[in-house]
Amino acid sequence: MSAARHLAAVAEPATQIDYAFCRHPGYHPGPGEPSFWEGIADGETRRDRDRRQAIAVKLCRECPLLAPCTNLLSDLDDRRLAVDGVIAGQVRQWRTRTKKKRPRTPHLS
């Protein structure tokens, strides 16, 4: 689950989430493109991901909801729930890219 969805689920009052930068439509690309806050996107290079997430980290640190988001992250850590992406100005990665397996060559005797 993305960090923005976690924050939306716990933000009080419900309208407070509207002020989080990660929820602002202006910071989200077009359909099929990863947001700044998402984790690894399919087909994305590490360099592109790092650049994208660096923008998210900067926006998080300026966000009016940084404190509640930091509390949310602490709660998720306490419950051992993993987040993939940027949350509370921190980059979290819980999954890795799957590498394509090379077909094994049979041993010829």
What series of H and E elements makes up the topology? HHHEE
Strand order of the largest sheet: 1-2
Distance between the termini: 50 Å
Mean pLDDT: 79
Number of DSSP-assigned strands: 2
Helix count, per DSSP? 3
Gyration radius from CA atoms, angstroms: 17 Å
Counted up, domains total: 1
Percent helix: 25-40%
Q: Main β-sheet, in a few words?
A: 2 strands, antiparallel
Please explain how this structure is put together.
- The chain is mostly helical and 109 residues long.
- The chain has one domain.
- The protein is built from 3 helices and 2 strands; from the N terminus they run H-H-H-E-E.
- The protein has a two-stranded antiparallel sheet with strand order 1-2.
- A hairpin with a 2-residue loop joins strand 1 and strand 2.
- The termini are far apart.
- The model has no long low-confidence stretch (mean pLDDT 79).
Key features?
109 residues, mainly alpha, two-stranded antiparallel sheet, 4Fe-4S Wbl-type domain-containing protein, 4FE4S_WBL, 3 helices
Give the helices and strands, then pairings:
Elements: H1 3-10, H2 46-62, H3 66-78, E1 85-87, E2 90-92
Antiparallel strand pairs: 1-2
Gist of the model:
The protein has 109 residues and is mainly alpha-helical. It has helices spanning 3-10, 46-62, 66-78, and strands spanning 85-87, 90-92. The termini are far apart.
